[in-house]
Amino acid sequence: MSHYGDELTLRLSGIADTSALDDDAALTRFMRDLVDRIGMTVIAGPLVATETGTPEKAGKSAVVILAESHAAIHTYPYLREILINVFSCKPFHENDVIDEFHRLVGDFRITEHSLTRRGEEWPRDLTAARRLWSDQRVPG
């Protein structure tokens, strides 16, 4: 791979079944299933948190820290939307991510989509990475 990793960001709108979007247990299971499907290794989580407030801003956030990086989602049941971020130094298939969301909520529209190659200049050798970081620091 010629870069550090890939970052997938999605916005799903028009969620058909919003019942899981406000359910801690369902989101915890979903995050485990998602990570398993894309072949990653959990080192912390899943952690699910609740955001209260006006219906437009209320929902759940779920995150899992991976040996390969992280996966996070933010649900907005009232808006029938989910925001997604999966970042990994290990290759994964974005269709696997999308398929898992179909299993969770049924139909939806992808209204925002970005797959970004991250770390084009990031060295693989940790010694070189430390040197690069040290050389870029401004003495304080």
Automatic annotation (TrEMBL):
Classification from the root reads: Bacteria, Bacillati, Actinomycetota, Actinomycetes, Micromonosporales
The scientific name of the source species is Actinoplanes flavus
Cofactors demanded by this protein? pyruvate
Secretion signal, residue range per the UniProt entry:
none
UniProt keywords (A-Z) are: Autocatalytic cleavage, Decarboxylase, Lyase, Polyamine biosynthesis, Pyruvate, S-adenosyl-L-methionine, Schiff base, Spermidine biosynthesis, Zymogen
Domain of life, per UniProt, equals Bacteria
Q: What positions belong to coiled-coil segments?
A: none
| Name listed for the protein in its UniProt record | S-adenosylmethionine decarboxylase
Xref: InterPro entries: AdoMetDC_fam_prok, S-AdoMet_deCO2ase_core
Question: Which Pfam families does this UniProt record tie to the protein?
Answer: AdoMet_dc (PF02675)
Statement: the UniProt record of this protein carries the keyword Oxidoreductase = no
**Transmembrane domains' residue ranges:** none
The protein's matches in PANTHER family, at most eight in alphabetical order, are given as: S-ADENOSYLMETHIONINE DECARBOXYLASE PROENZYME
